[in-house]
Amino acid sequence: MVSEDLKTKKYDRQLRLWGNEGQTCLESSSICLLNASVTGTEILKNLVLAGIGSFTIIDDKPIMDDDIYNNFMINLPPKNTTSDKNNLDLKGSIIVKNLLELNPYVKGSHINKGIESILEEKNIGSLDCFDLIIASHINDNELSILSNFTWEHKIPFIHCESFGFFGFMKISFDEMAIIDTHPENSIPDLRIIRPFPEFQEYLESIDFSAMNKNQLKKYPYIIILAKLWRAYLSRRQNSENMSEDDNGDASHETVKIFSSNLDRHRKNEFATYVKQYFERYKKVITPSADEFGLTSEAEHDWSDMVNECVKATNTCLIDETKIPQNVEEILKDRKCGLEYLSRKTVNLVRHETETLSQTGIKNVEGPNAEKGASLSSREYHRDNYKFWCLAYTLKLFIDKYGKLPLRGILPDMNCDTEIYVEILTLFRRRFAEECLQFKEIWEREVLEILDTSSPSAEIGCSSSLKIHITDQEIELFCKNCHFLRVVRGLPAENEVSALFDSMLSPLPDQEISENVSALSPKDLSLIYCLIRCYSKFASEIKEQPIVAYKGGANEMRNIKTLKECVRNFVEDRCSPGQAQELRELIDAERTEALMKEMLKHYESLELITTCSFLGGIASQQCVKVLTRQYVPFKGTFIYSGIDGSNAQFS
């Protein structure tokens, strides 16, 4: 683990992306690479530079000539020409040595075993200690075994293959619960419609009618819009003969009616009201700009402020009681309920009971007692247990208070610094108060019930140790509760139905020729099938078709064999209604042109340019999975280095 000061200096740029929490997750992660291919090495290289905790390469192959030419992490001449088999340099060990030079804070190891040995029933359990498994150069049988194992043990699994200028990446995971999704165009939580009491008191202390332009433009648009919204509601209330409160402001019922119907028409109407207000203000409050010594630059600042307020009516005017659809789906999930959490609590405590009995430990003592022993349990982490506890608490919070917790974050605004700090302080204080309210619900209405359902007495320790959630975790959850996401995937061996649908889509209007240029998603889905059939194809021809791309009998024989492999691959996985159309597609002239392009690269399977690109894409997804930040894609990504085209099927 890297010290905090050194971490800040070494990983400064990436800390701005995923923060200390994400970096800590990376530093505690353990990665396994099955088969040291060029693509797999490129993925590991990027992860090592990012600062993962450790990695293990499982490969028993010696260095060959192609490895020297294509793999940047291998810089030794091959010794496979010698008759002394003990003098061969193992590819995995050389790659580990060179990768560790990139980052001295990462640990790496090499296991000199073939993948077929690791996947035996007596050995495959050793893979359960990894947080992520990456594999390449595997056949269908090995993929099936790995897919079943990783799915059963809830280990994220990435399968990458490259073939000449083509390649694909398939990512598989059971469930990914993401708190910090880093939304690109998030709507700020400004509480303009329904200000909290302290903010409402601050708004009432401000009187725009006694201000000139210079004074008014010191205030951010959040203040201006919040006050104008109340004035707008009062105006609509009077025009429609609706009731007012004791102070002459819009009543609570009026606020509720108008806030629940914030459609485009209502926002446009309010934006028009804001424009008219500023026009009246300029004429009535400030009849002459020279009177207050306003320069042309000050007039420009005034116009900017008006435009900013009008623009914000579309982006910041939201009903705080409306729950985002992504959050609503999570709250309706079967896991977001007391029945599931109680049952899961029992299973986790029993699992730990068995672990402690096997190790001879009867109690949890020392500095780790406060953290709770089960926090280190991989099953605890893989089941997203803590996330669902927080999600259920959020459901109870909404039932009690009618809205999500305040985020406590303000966007940048053009205003006076002191005023901005005052408003930010109000929001941060309110955020801290609502975090305490959230914590109170967690402790009194969730934790106590889960405690009573936990058979913790069997291991002689408090069950609250099993479900320990820190204040920092509660703050992080409340800050991001508007953007929660749960992504569920499929096992790696399951073919995506969208891929076969793409294969049957109409071809674009283009001339079919021997030179494969611009590739459509349909072409890319065919290429995926061709790559998947490579191992079967290679085993059937028994020899390398060195002259396959030069025409003649060898080429026709190999194309015929490859077609048969693809046909069997597709028919085993597609629906009965798709079979006949897919057979016709495989026999089409366009498909044959793609096969000829594939056979050109039979001798040099991996090109460093293709592998580097795929490695970059895959390592990004690995970081998302390991840090539990951002939203990883699920399914299959296919890439062509000929024209840079790509397609994603999920």
What is the compact description of this entry?
This protein is of the alpha/beta class and 650 residues long. It folds into 4 domains: 4-176 and 607-649, NAD(P)-binding Rossmann-like Domain (Rossmann fold, 3-Layer(aba) Sandwich); 197-315, no CATH class; 325-487, no CATH class; 497-599, no CATH class. The protein contains 26 helices and 10 strands.
Which labels suit this protein?
single chain; 650 residues; alpha/beta; Rossmann fold; 4 domains; eight-stranded mixed beta sheet; two-stranded antiparallel ribbon; 51% helix; 8% strand
Structural description of this entry:
This protein is an alpha/beta fold and 650 residues long. The chain folds into four domains: 216 residues, 3-Layer(aba) Sandwich (Rossmann fold); 119 residues, no CATH class; 163 residues, no CATH class; 103 residues, no CATH class. It is 51% helix and 8% strand. The strands form two sheets. An eight-stranded mixed beta sheet has the order 3-2-1-4-5-6-9-10, with helices on both faces. Strands 7-8 form a two-stranded antiparallel ribbon. It is globular and about 90 Å long. About 9% of the residues have low confidence.
